[in-house]
Please model this.
Amino acid sequence: MEELEKHARLFNMIAPVYNKFFRWQVKNYRSVLNKYAGFLNIPPGGRVLDIGCGTGAFTYCFAERGYQAVGVDFSSSMLRAARKSTRGKSIEFEKGDITKGLDFPDASFDLVLSSFVLHGLSSELRHSIYVEAGRLSRNQILFYDYNQKRRLFTDLIEWAEGGDYFGFVRHGEKEMKSHYYDVNKIDVGPQSAIYLCSSLRRVPEPRKAE
Model:
């Protein structure tokens, strides 16, 4: 797919530079988890899947909390950087494209998460991620991305990147609500939010006898 090939070329190229921000990213993700991990219901030692893991900063933060962390990305260069940066942690990194489906059984993770991936993809590819994340998760899905608050500098950067930032800002939360039973958006920064989604559908209560 041409869109994904373009992204793969870009991220393979910027991986060495991107990895220089690894420690800053870990610090930021730790701060978010320290404040909001109470919203998650992951059993001790539970399995966590980070899709579009990049250089592995978010994956690392879950691993250091004692979870079985798995990171997946389609960029070979990002994965090489991730393995190097997280050396010493028991993290499994695999190359894969979630938009085409991943080689994991249904409901094999206690939490499926993705950080700043959705806004860079077309609505069609976001749809495929929502579907596959719902398949892989036992219930909980976490998307960490932009909220609806825009700033000129971010607009310019994202316009230059060529993703679908503007479409995601306008429609992302609504898209999630069309795929999941429950979506809880929590603003965690001036322009960022975590979207906590439940993949389970409520079972209708039996009708009372007339």
